[in-house]
Every structure is written in C-alpha cells, then in structure tokens.
Write a sequence for this structure.
C-alpha cells in the first residue's frame, strides 16, 4: 500500500472513524504532561506530545491484572483479555521497547496474558514532533523505528503522511481516500527522520550502545554505584516508568466465601528493598547500591546478552521521574567511560 | 469451624477508622459471615469480654490506657492495630514535641489539673503490647482491611507493602508532586493506600508511617536539589512522623 497524504481534517475524521469501530487508546494531556488514555474523540489526541508519564507497556502488561481464577479444591481458569484495540501515537523509542518486550514475553515461558493483548493490538506509531527535556533516543538508535507496528504517521508541515506497514494497518485505513504522497513528501519524511536523530539527544552518550555490555563487564566494583545510591529512596520509579522493565509480583486473594479466589500480578521493581527476599528471609540484594547497580546491568548487559539489544531506548522517563535525580543512564555510562 | 469472636476497642482517636469498617456497608454482611463481632461500641449495644481477635484503634496516651490495652492483649489471641493512631501514634504524637504541662494548659486551660485529664507521652499500640497485624493509614484503606481479615481467616500471612507510595502513585500515572515544587512524603512512606492524596492533587502526608528502612540520610542533599531545607521537610513530617520509630531490617 502506498503512503497516503492527509490534511489535519482528514486525519481527524480517520481517527474518529477508528473510535467508532473499536477501542482506541491515544495520547492526551494530563496536567502539564501527557498520558495514553481511552480516546473519545480525535480532537483530544495530542500527537505533538513530548513523552508520556508511563510508557504504552501498560496496555500489554497492565499495572495489575488477574491471571487466574481458582477454587481451593484445585480447579482454575486462565483470565485472558482479548478485546481488540488500537494504540494511537506511540513514539518510535517506545515501539522499539514494545518489540523488545515481545521478544521477552514470547520466548522461554510464552506469556499468554501479554501475548493475547499484543496480538489483539494495532499500533500506530507517530514520529516525534517535540523532544522531551531528557530524551536521548538519538544516542540509542531509537529515534526512528523500522518494524513491529502497523501504521506510521509523520507530520510534514501541515500534512500527515500515513504509511500502512502491515495488513492490519491497511485494514485500519480502509475507506480512507487520500492522495498518495509524492517524491517530495517522502524526501521530507527522510529529513524528519534524520533531524530527529539529532533532536532527540538532550543527553549525549559518549560511546556506542553496543559498547555498553563490555563497559559494564569491567565496572562491577566501580565507586559510582555506592556514590549514587547514597541518595536512592528505593522507590522503584525508575523501573515503573521504564518501557523495557517487565518484572512483576504474583499474589493470591480469596473471595469472602474463602473457597474461590484469584491470582493476580502487579508491577514489581528490582529497586524495592524486599524484591530479592527469598525463602528463609534471605535478601540477596539488601543494599540500595546493589539494587542500583543491578538496574544498569539489567539494562546494559543481562537483557542485552539475551536479546542482542540494550534494554534502554533513551526515552528519559527515569531521568525525569527520579526524585533524587540519580537515575540518568547517560551520566552513569559516560562516567564509566571516563574511568575505563 | 466456629467463627472467631472479634472485639473492637478505641483509645485516643477520632474513631474514623472504625467508621471505615461501618462504611463497608453491604460488605459488612460478608465480614460477619467470617467473624462474629462481640464488642464494638460504635456499632452494637452488646459487649463481651470473651474474644479471639482484638482490634485496637487509637493511640495510648494515659497510664490507665496502658493497663487497659494490656488486659485486652491478655484476653486476645490476635491483636490488630487499626489506623495511624494505633500503628504509629498518629497525629496524637504531635503532643510529644512539647512539654506535657504546657500541652495540658493549652488544651484544657483552668481545668488542666483535673485528675481525669492527666496525660502521658503518646505511644503507638506496639510500644505498649505486642501487635500481630497493623492496618495502616488515616483513615485505613477498607479493601486492605478486608484483605487482612480474609488472610487471618485462612491462616495466611497478609502481604503488606514495604515500599514507598511512589510505586502506587506512578502506577496511577500521576505527575510527581516534586515537579510542582512541593515536598511530598511519598518516597519514604509505606504504600498500600493506592496513593489517594497525590492522585487528588495533594502531597503525601505520610499517614501510613515510614517504610521499614527509609533513606533518611539522603534528605538534606535532595531537599537542596529542590531549593528546600531539611527544616521544610521536618515541618511536613511533624503531622504523622513525630517520634516515629523505623524498623530497619538488615
């Protein structure tokens, strides 16, 4: 399918037609910030947003979700959410993160809860118009994205290029009549992509992302972990706002009959003091510095060893969210580079 | 299985946490399908001294109250502290920042010396007797209370968060109060409330008490980053944090 060129009115009527057909989540204002939320009408959609408070992972791995209902006698049923939906306005760095999560949740123990939601989702990516204060996606190779999504939107002046990349994406655009984008439009889009690489570098990483695993290999005993963690509240914000963090805790609760109940999972964080408590009340990461360091190794080495990509997409949410202002990965990696 | 007999007692408090139990409304019937209330001044006329579980609301502020709560402890198999006054001393501990005679004169004026107005330093319930379970908050979170009751009925240890309110606040996708230039006690306060205050546009008042191991040493440096002082922070903490002990576990 060719790339279409829509003006704002045509884009809005396309979005309203999607809303009429199915559940749509889109980026909207939340105070002075932005968030993905159920979209009621096209005019609420804010494709000019810089970054959302939480990444779109909440639609695939919700903050809390029921996994199973059970009876104490041992019978149980899986709880699956299979309502189709459209996720509208995902930035490229967040799309890269969703692709990473897909790789994680579809391998080893295939996660049927995550994957059911993922398969029922259509994702519309939107190239970034405004850089957030702490974004560094340009350094991480995630200012643009090539795959995983269904439709790509790019703003070119007052017009929008709408590019269906999958059959599902073409389905979303069914009934949209608009001219094809011309050579000049496509060249302008290339220019947006090139400019975004430069624009999304509010922090500059002094090495290639692919250098990070080796850098960490040599830095386990570096003083920066203790120094920074001295200010850490162990509040878990850096991981909760992270588009690539996916750890969860599983708990059971029973109904008032004390016979039936449900098992649910909720976001957990390696930064929380009790995260690593195991049988016998042993805690293998009892100190904030252990946990602080673990996050960087998780992002820069452990997951990278597993899926071949650094599990940091440069969205900068942890930099903004950290009350103590110690969570900037670029500062840490640059410091390790200096002392190498 | 016979239902455990439950008695609810109040000490120095506003009785608002008991009221949260009354406010369970239709769920009250579920509650009494699991337990048998035998003493509950706020909600029933009858009273019995024979009970398995004692729920104690309020803080301990007079010598005679210490004796009373010790008697309750002796009679009960399980003792639950209900609400911030009981779990951490609550707002009543503000008193501990001042001279007791001065406090009495300020509150009672010329009656200050009357014997029934005698007062002592405020204590949380666990500063006087052993407490088995704590239902935190001012007021308590009703769903946490009912969860704890069901766990006790099952003989299962309830899982009470030992992480900061920030966790629940972030899950609700609130803009951080620090971004508005406010001091919020969320980063050191025990979660479990689901962050209602920041979600309604207020900073966290710290009513659930501190997590077991709050990073108090970081306060000065972090306040400086926001152009605030430790005194600003202490002022915010006075309401629920006066004389609060933390239970670091290493």
């Amino acid at each position: 399918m060719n790339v279409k060129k829509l003006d704002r009115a045509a884009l809005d009527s396309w979005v309203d037609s999607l809303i009429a057909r199915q559940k749509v989540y889109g980026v909207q204002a939340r105070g002075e910030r932005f968030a993905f939320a159920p979209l009621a009408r096209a005019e609420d959609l804010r494709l000019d947003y810089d970054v959302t408070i939480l990444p779109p992972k909440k639609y695939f791995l919700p903050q809390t979700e029921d996994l199973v209902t059970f009876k104490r006698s041992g019978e149980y049923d899986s709880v699956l959410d299979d309502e189709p939906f459209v996720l509208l306005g995902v930035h490229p760095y967040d799309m890269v993160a969703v692709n990473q999560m897909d790789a994680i949740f579809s391998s080893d123990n295939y996660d049927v809860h995550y994957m059911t939601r993922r398969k029922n989702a259509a994702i519309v990516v939107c190239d970034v118009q405004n850089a957030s204060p702490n974004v560094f996606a340009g350094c991480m190779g995630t200012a643009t994205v090539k795959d995983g999504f269904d439709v790509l939107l790019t703003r070119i002046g007052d017009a929008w290029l709408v590019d269906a990349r999958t059959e599902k994406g073409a389905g979303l655009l069914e009934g949209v009549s608009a001219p094809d984008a011309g050579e000049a439009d496509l060249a302008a889009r290339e220019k947006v992509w090139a400019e975004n690489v430069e624009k999304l570098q509010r922090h500059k990483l002094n090495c290639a992302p692919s250098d990070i695993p080796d850098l960490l290999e040599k830095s386990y005993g570096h003083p920066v972990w203790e120094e920074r963690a001295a200010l850490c509240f162990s509040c878990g914000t850096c991981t909760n706002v992270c588009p690539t963090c996916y750890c969860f805790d599983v708990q059971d609760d029973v109904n008032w009959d004390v016979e039936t109940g449900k098992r649910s999972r909720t976001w957990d964080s390696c930064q929380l003091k009790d995260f690593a408590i195991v049988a016998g009340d042993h805690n293998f990461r009892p100190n904030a510095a252990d946990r602080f360091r673990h996050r960087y190794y998780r992002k820069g080495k452990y997951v990278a060893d597993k899926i071949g990509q650094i599990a940091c997409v440069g969205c900068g949410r942890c930099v903004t969210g950290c009350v103590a202002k110690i969570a900037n990965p670029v500062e840490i990696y640059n410091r390790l580079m200096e002392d190498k | 299985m016979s239902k455990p007999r439950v008695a609810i007692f109040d000490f120095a408090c506003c009785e608002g946490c008991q009221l949260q139990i009354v406010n369970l409304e239709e769920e009250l019937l579920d509650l009494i399908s699991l337990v048998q209330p035998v003493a509950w001044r706020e909600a029933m006329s009858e009273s019995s001294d024979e009970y398995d579980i004692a729920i104690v609301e309020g803080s301990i502020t007079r010598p005679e109250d210490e004796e009373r709560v010790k008697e309750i402890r002796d009679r009960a198999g399980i003792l639950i502290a209900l609400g911030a006054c009981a779990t951490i001393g609550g707002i009543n501990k503000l008193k501990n920042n001042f001279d007791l005679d001065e406090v009495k004169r300020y509150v009672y004026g010329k009656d200050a010396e009357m014997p029934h107005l005698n007062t002592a330093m405020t204590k949380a319930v666990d500063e006087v007797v052993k407490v088995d379970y704590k239902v935190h908050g001012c007021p308590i979170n009703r769903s946490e209370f009912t969860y704890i009751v069901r766990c006790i009925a099952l003989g299962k240890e309830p899982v009470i968060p030992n992480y900061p309110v920030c966790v629940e606040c972030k899950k609700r996708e609130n803009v951080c109060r620090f971004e508005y230039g406010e001091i919020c006690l969320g980063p050191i306060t025990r979660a479990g409330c689901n962050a209602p205050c920041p979600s309604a546009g207020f900073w966290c008042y710290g009513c659930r008490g501190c997590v077991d191991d709050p990073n108090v040493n970081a306060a000065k440096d972090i306040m400086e980053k926001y152009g605030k002082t430790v005194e600003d922070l202490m002022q915010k903490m006075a309401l629920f944090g006066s004389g609060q002990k933390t239970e670091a576990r290493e």
Remarks:
- The CA atoms of residues 68 and 242 of chain B lie 24 Å apart.
